[in-house]
Amino acid sequence: MLELKRPMPKSIEELQAIARRIRREIVEMIGAAKSGHPGGSLSAVEILVELYFHRMHIDPKNPALPDRDRFILSKGHAAPVLYAVMAEAGYEQTPLDKLNTLRQLGSVYQGHPDMRYITALEASTGSLGEGLSLGLGMGLAARMNGGKSRTYVMLGDGEIQEGQVWEAAMASAFHKVDNIVAIVDNNRIQLDGFVKDIMNVDPLADKWRAFGWHTIEIDGHDLHAIQAAFDEAEATKGKPTCLVAHTIKGKGVSFMENNPKFHGTAPTAEEVKLALQELQ
Amino acid sequence: MPAKTKFEIKLGAATREAFGRALVELGRENKDVVVCDADLSKSTMTTYFAKEFPERFISLGIAEANMCAVGAGLALAGKIPFVSSFSAFAMNKGFEQLRACAAYPHVNLKVVGTHSGISIGEDGPSQMSIEEIGLACSLAGFVVIAPADEVSTKALVKAAAGYLGPVFIRTGRPKAAVVYSPGQKFEIGKAVQVADGADVTIIASGLMVAQALLAADTLEGEGISARVIDMHTAKPLDREAIARAASDTGAIVVAEEHLVDTGLGVRVAQAVAQSRPCPMEFVGIQDTYAESGQPDELLDKYHLIARDIAAAVRKVVARKN
């Protein structure tokens, strides 16, 4: 049987270079699609780069190995970041040269992640609030199997307004499922505006702690901090870990940063050009 | 045609009880079978499984939406999960999760609803599920099963475990009349003809199969020869059996403990319309919610007994020609 290994260790500088490429690809693909969610894709880049290029025990050439680590993008509207990362990581079903077919009829790059088109995805997501429950099921299965597989679930800060998230949070801590990690991409913006104005979710870390999770707050763009937090999660036994990742919506593109407009609006051709200049 | 033996109601185990027993047998046969319950295991009878396989039983509390998605996660990681609650809660509260996490990605999840229909009795309408066959059938790719008795439930629960894909099974609270002898074979999607007849076909599911057999005996005395089909699988429908019934008998009554608006009846009518259109009548719940009472009283009051099937048969036979 093939042994699952972490991808070759990469320096922070190498990971940052990959992150820059991913950001360019995100902007280009959403620009080509003329619809999509750039802001929440750009805010999640460093975390996904760390997971797919440094952290997870995965083999992109053998994506179905049973004891692999798993990632679920519960905030499925950030599909472009996941597609770009999987394409860069070398999954056969996610060709780099097809990224710009995002959202087109027949493209594997569906508007939200769809396992029917990319079986290497761990879940089909898009209806918010459901990924943590799926991750809990996978974590329970891994524990029953006695395997080392760990499951990472990324949620949006707006997404956790969904009640099911807290059902799953309660159940994960109750069952002491310490092989799952929830990551809240706390970019503070949802479709209608700032989270604090639509339905406040603060105090965020306190909520997770109260639900029984080991909770770590980090700068979600600082790869050193991200790596340290994932190390701490691996060392934490008897309870699941939640990373509250403070991020900037639209990170890396000045006119998208902290701008609610770019939650769900594609950049124009001119804006794509400007953004790519900034992302050199 | 030779005289039929009269059908007599002999109560066997409830279909939920049969489900609970079948789960234990499955657990012994396959270590990948796991069970989730939402604080109703003593009622859904998953408690038998929980006692024998505590490490494979997951208590998820009163949170059905989470349970349905956790089940999907277990399935995505290679398990054969059965999630169970009252039908009213598993299907209504879990519907969106069943759609997004199980149906759309076509996940190997088994959902078993108990206390279905109005025969749950005294607990009343908040606990009664009269719409879940319609809901389950609107989940693309789901197999939807409503067995009639203990023997068929056990067999179909096992068939569901062996089938790769999402399945919903509807079971009931009260003791179920025995329809089948042990050893009877069942196949998902293949209806069972439990009585033959020439003038009309009664297509039934769940506890209405026994009532249909009683009705057939009454009608026999009136010179009406009724075929009775147990359509235990609402999806995929046994279209051949339906087309044959329409062709051979020229009239069909569908009987179900479910809203007539969205249940087995409308599905059978669609199949009839596409094969050999013939007069049809429908016995079921008529755009209302029931109330508290004893199951027998409720089934009588809401017109779900042999008498009501026989009346529908007389009506449909009068419409022939």
What's the short version?
The complex is a heterodimer of chains A (280) and B (321). Chain A is α/β, with parallel strands linked by helices and 280 residues long.
According to CATH, what is the class of chain A? Answer: Alpha Beta
Instruction: Please give the largest β-sheet of chain A.
Output: 5 strands, parallel
Q: Counting H and I runs of at least 4 residues, what is the number of helices of chain B?
A: 12
Cα(first) to Cα(last) distance of chain B is 22 Å
Question: Low-confidence parts of chain B lasting 5 or more residues at pLDDT below 50?
Answer: none
Strand order of the largest sheet of chain B: 3-2-4-5-7-6-12
Structurally, the number of domains of chain A stands at 1
At CATH level 2, the architecture of chain A is 3-Layer(aba) Sandwich
Query: Helical proportion of chain A?
Result: 25-40%
Tertiary shape of chain B = globular
Radius of gyration of chain B: 19 Å
Order of helices and strands of chain B: EHEHHEHEHEHEHEEEEHEEHEHEHH
User: Strand percentage of chain A, roughly?
Assistant: 5-15%
Structural class estimated from helices and strands of chain B: alpha/beta
| Residue-averaged pLDDT of chain B | 97
Radius of gyration based on Cα positions of chain A: 17 Å
Q: Do you know the CATH topology of chain A?
A: Rossmann fold
Largest sheet of chain B: 7 strands, mixed
- At the third CATH level, what is the topology name of the largest domain in chain B? Rossmann fold
Largest interface: A-B, 33 and 30 residues
